[in-house]
Write a structure and sequence with these properties.
Layout lengths: L1 H11 L67 H10 L9
Length: 98
């Protein structure tokens, strides 16, 4: 029953046959009858080779980011007021490095 349910699910998803290596024209409507010949395709104009357009800035090669050196363990202040001051102003606060 599980196998039948799985096969039914794939069939509803549109995957009910094996696909071969030969490309298929999924969007081409078949001719109305067997005697109809397909229309010849219009010739494409010659393509002039030119340089491809530049990549968007997000895809261009960027410089490698510099890896920060580990500083070692952070020493926390013992006093509550000192801790609040350290937390507000210190560059050693974990996660505050930019």
């Amino acid at each position: 029953m599980l196998a039948q349910s799985t096969c039914d699910w794939w069939s509803l998803a549109g995957v009910d046959a094996l696909v071969g290596e030969k490309p298929a024209g999924w969007l081409v409507t078949p001719p109305a009858n067997d005697d109809a010949k397909p229309k010849p395709k219009p010739k494409r104009p010659a393509i002039i080779e030119s340089d491809p357009p530049p990549l968007p800035s997000a895809l261009q090669r960027q410089e490698a980011p510099q890896i920060a050196e580990p500083k070692g363990p952070v020493v926390f202040p013992d006093d509550w007021v000192e801790f609040q001051t350290w937390l507000a102003k210190s560059d050693e606060v974990p996660g505050s490095q930019v």
